[in-house]
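Q: Give me the 3D complex with uracil.
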Amino acid sequence: MNSRHDVYLKEMGLGPRWRLRRAPLEDIPEVEREPDPVAVPPVVEAVPEPVRFSPPSAAIPIPPPTLESPSPAGLDWPALNAAIRACRACPLHKTRTQAVPGVGDMQAEWLFVGEAPGADEDVQGEPFVGQAGKLLDNMLAGIGLKRGEKVYIANVLKCRPPGNRNPEAGEVQCCEPFLVRQVELLQPKLIVALGKFAAQTLLGQEATIASLRGKVHQYRGIPLIVTYHPAYLLRNLPDKAKAWQDLCLAVKTRRALEEPA
Ligand code: URA
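A: Here is the predicted complex, encoded as structure tokens.
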């Protein structure tokens, strides 16, 4: 448990690495397979970060798609990313530093979907690079995954809502076709929705996260697991154990897909 990586994470205030007690994927190196003596993952220190969890409000008028937001249907990766970066379909383009298309392996088996870029992501152009992103990387490591290797990370919204306010319904409507195209291109084996907003948007339901967790849902024929948003977990430490259960369900679901019928 005292690897350089653990020390590094501790320095970041994220505590020891999460470890699955059994390697979830066959190609995890032996060194990563240390048994975890406790079933519940270690607690991390809270790092304040604005969290957005409300579903899009139906009361807000939805701006119609404009000529500046052509449909991404049929676009390949370079064209899709360019379309996202050039998008001016909703007012968020006026306040963003840059759009944040997504990051990772374009043949990813796992797709993790968050809500929208925050301040750090808006500056760096990559999803989940702030404190919540560090916890997400830690969560990925816990199940033998790594950003960029068989993993793609995207958000429902590609542009930061000013002040990290909740996404609005019109913004989601403008942006969702980009996520749909990302899923079509990736054809991931499994999707993990991070937080209530991503879960509600992908599943088209206004259900609570408590009622959505612990089940295998489907998004366009792809299994989808719901878990807490990492930023929420940074503020609600006891729920980290539940997020660990969700990740274990995700690994179990992914493994089951590999088993012969
Ligand atoms: N929160 C998100 O939902 N996505 C990010 O990329 C960063 C923080």
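A quick observation: The radius of gyration is 18 Å.
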